[in-house]
Amino acid sequence: MPQQSLEPNTRHIAAIDLGSNSFHMVVAKVVGNDLQLISRHKQRVRLAAGLDKEMNLTHSAIERGLACLAMFAERLQGFDANNVRIAATHTLRQANNAHLFIQRALEVMPYPIEVIPGEEEARLIYLGVAHTQAESNSKLVIDIGGGSTEMIIGQGFDAEWVNSKQMGCVSYTERFFANGKLSKKAFSRAILAAEQKLESIAAHYRETGWEMALGSSGTIKAIREVLIGQGYADGLITQKRLYKLIDTLCQFDTIETIQLPGLTDERKPVFAAGVAILTAIVDDLAIETLHFSDGALREGLLYEMEARFARTDIRMRTTENLAYKHAVDIRHATRVKDLASALFDKVARDCHLTNKRELRAMLEWASLLHEVGLSISLRGYHRHSAYILQHTNMPGFNSEQQLLLAWLARFQRKALKLNELPSFSLYKPEALHCLIKLLRLAIVLNGQRGAEPLADMHLTITKSGWQLSASRRDWLEHNKLLHADLLEERERWAHAGWALSIDPVTS
């Protein structure tokens, strides 16, 4: 049952961040135009440490993750699916068997898990910081996780430069501090490796500049707490303080023997690697002072979930920008979108679709972007469109949403090789097939690319298949080319095992 709030005019929402080192959950309530945090929950899972040499999560790592999600699920009993968002980051992006973890996770927590690209993670981190740190307009935001590090420059609530680098406190601990020994040489090697990762972006970031530099999440929070314990009451992070902290750490023989005020036992195993990564960033980006922000990825998820906090729908902006970049014929794409949406409304119930709002939106975005590949070549443009949509940074879309757009574009025309469709955890095959059919019909029916409106189209689903007709009985008589295209489309459906009837059929 959906959660029933005891408070009038409130909505309870929750966001979960499945990080490489820890899982985090934050619960909030929306009252009017205000979002109030109610509770935070954190569990160290060490998911990244459970990746084997073949990049598969070990059984023990999966069990740790599931045990944490089972605890979180207790707090979320009664929450509607629309009020919970779960984002998985670097480790589940890398794990070959991530789909197995996600499938098992659904058994303990009945909410979909989104694996988000690194750039999308960076954008959401920035959003979380921007909403909780309003002192400056222009910001540099840094977030060092277990497997990746995100660096973002933005203005207000908009992330303008986003980067996600594969360097994290867990992975760097395994590379440079695997024996547990602390030495100047180990720190130098780790710092140099991080600087090599930063080489391609450092100059541009320095040239762009920012008013305030902010760090978020556990690694930077731990460094701040230790610096306070070292007598720096303001908790500010500087280059000089970081190098002094490295000197202090090197006074201990091993990671296990570190004893510093403010450093928890939980954070200790990966602390040295985090210090090395942050030192490289502060050096290369010439950061004078780094402040700490409580906002992070999970807060970004929360604020984006609540539409009243969104200035515009980020996914619509992304779609419009991509269409403009690739010189899409917007008038034609909009006609395809409008027809696809109208047809969706006619068959959504008979297709037994769940989450109709999300699927309808995905169909509309796919309609608007189905011809981006024409900017490369007319020949095989559906394949070009698929490639662009799969490999372009698309703010607002998680990895599966982006993959869905790509495959809708791939199957918009020509043969239907359904055996090539990848498996999805967020979308059922029946839903994918429905969206493919709708997009193809909308494109065929707009094949003449004219501004003249089509006859009022009717689409129904019967036991024998899909049936397409129009309000005018003579619609095919006056559209010979369209009729031929529909007959050809019917043949392609038949080869895929689908049935399409066109009423009336005159041949």
UniProtKB/TrEMBL annotation:
Membrane-topology annotation of the record: Peripheral membrane protein
Ppx/GppA phosphatase N-terminal domain mapped to chain residues: 26-308
Chief site of localization: membrane
Reaction catalysis annotation: [phosphate](n) + H2O = [phosphate](n-1) + phosphate + H(+)
Keywords: Cell membrane, Hydrolase, Membrane
BP terms from Gene Ontology: polyphosphate catabolic process
Cofactor entry: Mg(2+)
E.C. numbers: 3.6.1.11
Cellular location(s): Cell membrane
Domain Ppx/GppA phosphatase C-terminal residue range list: 314-489
Annotated Pfam families: Ppx-GppA (PF02541), Ppx-GppA_III (PF21447)
Family the UniProt entry places it in: Belongs to the GppA/Ppx family.
PANTHER family assigned to the protein according to its UniProt record, in alphabetical order: EXOPOLYPHOSPHATASE
Quaternary organization: Homodimer.
Protein name stated in the entry: Exopolyphosphatase
Gene giving rise to this polypeptide: ppx
